[in-house]
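hiii so um. not sure if this is the right channel but i have a protein structure encoded as tokens and i wanna go backwards to a sequence. like what aa goes where. can anyone help
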């Protein structure tokens, strides 16, 4: 898996460790509440680091231009899907009545587990494509389904009284619904209780698992190089905690973004389905992805939401 990218793997690992340390222990070392201004500042920092890494791929890797375009295309797609995922996180926090002060704490653990999950999924996906090539057509169908679901599916809602996930955890564990602290577990009268924060984290983890099923085929349609697939995915996930509060502040402004993301997934589904017949060039994919996102953002600003 490491191959000729060994030194880049080392550099990438060091960057990720430093970024995670800053994100977890520096950006909210005094308070867990992240303001919109801080969120925008740190989001720009994380995106800039990803673009610098992208430039390093272009300049210093063999066949760097092609790999650089693959990284950039995959990064944009994964970042767009991550933003769509953040809308679901926003809904979960509202339904579970989680305060702004506690949201970064939950997002921190959600992002750490998401990184581990994506790496496992990508490695498994690449292995499956090598062992059973026709699986690309199954991935293609999954992308079309995800595209339709994002564009035309009903908005997801959670009923805290009937949700099977929440009911399962409430049956298995003792539950303390009026807990107001920052812990996932709480000892009371020598009994271990789960808190609303734990249930919220469980919902976010399951939500991210569902999004991973969409995003992994999407990135593998752009590049089957494990280095490109994993690094673009992880860079897209890092900084989501800061980006979440940006999204929470502008959720109504870019209401057409989901249609741009849906169109991109449909296009990638076509790209993957045509792999054996007519491989669509990476540059063409990048242009289509950029135009789709730009139009969805511009039209959101021009056309007022009814």
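sure thing!! here u go:
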């Amino acid at each position: 898996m490491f191959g000729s990218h060994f030194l880049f793997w080392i550099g990438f690992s060091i960057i990720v460790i430093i970024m995670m340390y800053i994100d977890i222990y520096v950006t909210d070392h005094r308070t867990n509440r992240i303001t919109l201004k801080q969120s925008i500042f740190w989001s720009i920092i994380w995106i800039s680091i990803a673009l610098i890494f992208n430039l390093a791929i272009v300049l210093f890797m063999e066949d760097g231009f092609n790999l650089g375009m693959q990284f950039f295309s995959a990064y944009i797609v994964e970042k767009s899907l991550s933003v769509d995922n953040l809308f679901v996180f926003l809904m979960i926090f509202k339904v579970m009545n989680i305060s702004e002060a506690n949201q970064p704490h939950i997002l921190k653990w959600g992002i750490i587990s998401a990184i581990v999950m994506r790496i496992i999924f990508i490695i498994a996906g690449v292995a499956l494509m090598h062992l059973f090539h026709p699986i690309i057509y199954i991935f293609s169908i999954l992308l079309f389904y995800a595209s339709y679901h994002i564009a035309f599916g009903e908005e997801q809602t959670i009923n805290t009284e009937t949700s099977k996930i929440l009911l399962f955890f409430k049956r298995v564990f003792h539950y303390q619904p009026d807990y107001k602290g920052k812990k996932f577990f709480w000892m009371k009268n020598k009994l271990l209780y789960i808190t609303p924060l734990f249930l919220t984290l469980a919902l976010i983890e399951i939500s991210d698992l569902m999004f991973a099923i969409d995003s992994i085929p999407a990135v593998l349609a752009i590049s089957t190089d494990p280095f490109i697939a994993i690094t673009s995915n992880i860079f897209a996930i890092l900084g989501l905690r800061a980006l979440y509060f940006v999204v929470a502040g502008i959720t109504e402004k870019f209401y057409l973004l989901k249609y741009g993301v849906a169109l991109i997934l449909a296009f990638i589904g076509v790209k993957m389905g045509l792999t054996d017949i007519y491989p669509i060039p990476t540059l063409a994919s990048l242009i289509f992805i950029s135009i789709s996102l730009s139009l969805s953002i511009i039209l959101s600003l021009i056309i007022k939401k009814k």
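oh and Residues 64-95 form the longest helix (32 residues).
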